[in-house]
Amino acid sequence: MAGTVKESVKGTVILRSVPSGKIEAQIAEYLAEVYGDISISRIASLVNRTKPITIIKDVPRENGNVIVERINEMGASAYFLQYLGSPTRH
Question: At residue 2, does pLDDT exceed 70?
Fold first, then answer.
């Protein structure tokens, strides 16, 4: 419908847990692809931190859910935390 304002809910992707070893390396490689401009070694140090940790902030729910789904498919645990308040308007 022309003139309709689209609302986009934003939030944060939280990494809850990552099994050590091969899955940890896969998560670091995937997140390096998502970020694009951060090295795998820097991402690996982030993944190795005490959980839970915020890995992506201010992301639209649709994108966040894709990232969460992929991380969970790899064997780690992540979730999308929606911001409180009104959705951002585009």
Answer: no
- Three-class SS state of 60: strand
The residue with tokens 């890995």 is: 55
> What is the β-pairing status of strands 53-60 and 10-17?
antiparallel
C-alpha span between 69 and 73 (Å, rounded): 6
Distance of alpha carbon 86 from alpha carbon 22, whole angstroms: 40
Residue 57 is part of a domain; what is its CATH number? 3.30.1390.10
Q: What is the pTM of this model?
A: 0.81
Mind listing the pLDDT tens digit for each residue in 29-86?
999 999 888 888 899 888 888 889 999 999 999 999 999 999 999 999 999 999 986 4
Provide the residue range defining the domain that includes 60. Answer: 9-84
C-alpha angle 29/76/71, rounded to 5°? 55
Name the residue with tokens 């896969």: 26
Query: How many residues are recorded in the chain?
Result: 90
